[in-house]
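Discussion board: Methods & Data

I've been asked by a reviewer to show the raw model output for two of the constructs in my manuscript, not just the figures. I'm not sure how much to include, so I'm pasting the format here to get opinions. Each protein appears as its amino acid sequence followed by a line of discrete structure tokens. Is this the kind of thing reviewers expect to see in a supplement, or should I convert it first? Here is construct A:
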Amino acid sequence: MEKVGFLFFLAMTLCWATLANSVSRKSMNREASEDDDDINRRLRLLNKPAVKSIQMTSLQPRYGFWLALGDKYDSVESGWMVNPKLYGDKQARLFAYWTADGNDATGCFDLTCSGFVQTSSEVALGSALGPISSEWAQYQISVSIFRDPNTSNWWLRLTNNLVLGYFPASLFSSLKASAIMVNWGGQVYSTMVKKTPHTRTAMGSGEYSEALHGHACYINHVRIVDNSLSLKYPDMVGVWNDEVYCYNGQNHRDGYIDEPVFYFGGPGRNNFCP
């Protein structure tokens, strides 16, 4: 398990809802390289290492990354989700979440409790994201979280270097020093998960990961900064699928030397997931 001393998460989430302009895969790879150069330059100037990541889903689909340690783990999360119970509609919305005890008694989404401190007046947590992706016309959002080594606060950064705010170090115990695990992917919440009949709630676009670019939800340009202070693709990456006939994921390479792109999603209830 790789220890991430200072975590900065920047990845690109493309599903049926996200942000920015439609781009080809070639242009996205070029922009990703330019983004690396910009991040490295900023980290050298600020002396702030980091990690890059992306999102998850709940019945509410939620997509993003999260960090965990033990049964009573500290965790910070961000990405986009659809949550009618929280937001009152079915729009894809930017979210942040934290817990200091494995979701037992602490933590919340966005600003629904004291915790996350918003410092930007440009974008609000819970904002609806658009335009919406469709088949082949893909839109994206970049999300990163990095730890300030001077204060141990975890800062949330979005597309175009927009710093939204931070999770105070005072909320946590283990995350004050480092993160030991980073997860990217999707989740679906329902009382009918692992029951029959299964929920019809889709993850991502509703397509399985095998549909690949232009069809399935994906996360690319995954990066971390560990104690080497180098911005890099993680050394040890595994893929875990909970209900493979309902939703699945895979790390896919177009070519031997190409960096993996994580595709994931699924329709929920179907003939193979009754």
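Construct B, same format:
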Amino acid sequence: MTADLAQSGGFDIYTTFQQFLHDDQISPPLAAILSLAEAIVRSNAGTMFELVQALNDGAEELKRRSLNPISLNAGCELFIAFVTLFPHESDNFAELKKELEQQGRKYATEAISFRDKIAEFALGFIKDDSVILTHSHSRVVLRALLHAHKTKRISVYVTESRPRGLGLKTYEALTAAGIPCTVVLDSAVAYVMDQVDFVLVGSEAVVESGGLINYVGSNQMAIIAKAANKPFYALAESYKFHRLFPLSQYDLPTHNPNILSFTTPTSTAQSAGQDGKAANAASVTSAKGAVNPGTPPSLAERAMTQEQIAKNPGVDYTRPDLISLVFSDVGILTPEGVSQYLVGMFAG
């Protein structure tokens, strides 16, 4: 008989996952671990086999309902491996479940401090007067930059990171801390690369090959850095190490046939009409958001539609040969070192 995660209380693992994410310090892998820990005590499992089955079902539910399940998958597989390997000599299974739940919460609490360890490791590679290029928004990268700012003079370029504009969030945090920062167009990465000392990015996951999955645009940044002979450093907490082995962008779990697919226009006339409406509807806004009515339609700012955005990838894969080093709470690793660590991590 398969154990059910939902008891009389109507436990919904995805809702619980979303609630944990309300805490800005909790990343998706940690939210997944906390959700599975909560699921243990909610489960009616009476044996270890049933419990592991219930946790696997819960992980599949999280994956099914998430647009980008990559990083939460890393947390799920880490916690399920822990449960599977946990010594269970107790005759009272209810007590064992409570112990597992407590261990999961304890790990998540301790894991928040991993960013401080990574920031300290990265500090040794950040020289005074360094000019750094980063991409989008990353909690661990932000922590590393703020930590470096305490003792060193640094300046930061951050990409705008469209379509969500998460680079602006990084910009606001850095300027508020007094760090000189400039927002760079995603299309201007090659233009600015000669001005920087190195690239520093976060991660959605670091995979078995030692490659990196991160917000889309990271791969092209790594390619340009390699061509310009600039170090490309990735920062990743160990709970983002993921047993996944993509060979290309199209092996990622987030890829689907709709991404970068072509849309056949219904008619030339209709398309022209829609383009005209879009041009007339577009407007240029000032920094305060006020509309400038005098802007000609040909100069008005244009934005992608939600349908067009949906046809684009949210993350991309960066090959290990493009990555100089991976800074993690378990140490400073080469991409090959990540592979070796992953093997030992899940070997028990």
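Answer (T.O., handling editor elsewhere):
This is acceptable in a supplement if you add a one-line summary per construct. For B, something like: Residues 275-291 have pLDDT under 50 and may be disordered.
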